[in-house]
């Protein structure tokens, strides 16, 4: 049985799509997700990145993110074979904590509170695998880092890549 640490934002919850949706509602401009590929997170929109980053501090942003396809089914199956923890560096956005708890309760009710870890730095995480979309979290990780594909990380080649939750299932189930 392996211990698997899974990031929320960008891995379970579609942060990029949420930014696109919020931007469209706010400014009436639909940004194509493909136009964001290879660009740092919060960039690639017609307005400067500080405007997009400000969404992260607005009530409801974390609570209403779309679920990434197949994540619910695969994570439930992973729990049957492995020890699974949801690990989020949520302390940067303290107001996100209750929203993330509510979001997990709605979309992943099978994950108990004992298996949810909110932290500031993921350097404390000890697991066999970590599935994350950010280099900064995978670089110091001592286990096997799995880079979950997101527009901001498509050029990263330092880690084994998983493009979808079906890729995760093929690797860990």
UniProtKB/TrEMBL annotation:
Classification via SUPFAM superfamilies: HAD-like
An annotated GO BP: pyrimidine deoxyribonucleotide catabolic process
Residues annotated as transmembrane: none
Entry-linked Pfam families: NT5C
Active site: 7 (nucleophile), 9 (proton donor)
Gene3D superfamilies: Deoxyribonucleotidase, domain 2, HAD superfamily/HAD-like
Gene Ontology molecular function: any one: 5'-nucleotidase activity
Domain of life: Bacteria
Family, per entry: Belongs to the 5'(3')-deoxyribonucleotidase family.
Protein name: 5 nucleotidase deoxy cytosolic type C
């Amino acid at each position: 049985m392996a211990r698997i640490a899974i990031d929320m934002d960008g891995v379970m919850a579609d942060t990029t799509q949420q930014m696109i949706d919020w931007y469209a509602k706010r400014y009436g401009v639909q940004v194509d997700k493909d136009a964001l590929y290879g660009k740092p997170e919060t960039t690639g929109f017609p307005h400067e990145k500080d405007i997009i980053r400000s969404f992260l501090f607005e009530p409801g942003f974390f609570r209403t993110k779309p679920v990434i396809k197949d994540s619910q089914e695969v994570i439930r199956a992973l729990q049957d074979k492995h020890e699974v923890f949801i690990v989020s560096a949520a302390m940067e956005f303290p107001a996100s904590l209750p929203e993330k708890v509510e979001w997990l309760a709605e979309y992943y009710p099978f994950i108990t509170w004992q298996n949810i870890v909110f932290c500031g730095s993921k350097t404390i995480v000890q697991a066999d695998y970590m599935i994350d979309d950010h280099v900064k979290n995978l670089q110091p990780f001592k286990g096997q880092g799995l880079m979950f594909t997101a527009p901001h990380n498509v050029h990263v080649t330092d880690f084994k890549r998983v493009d979808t939750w079906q890729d995760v299932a093929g690797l860990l189930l």
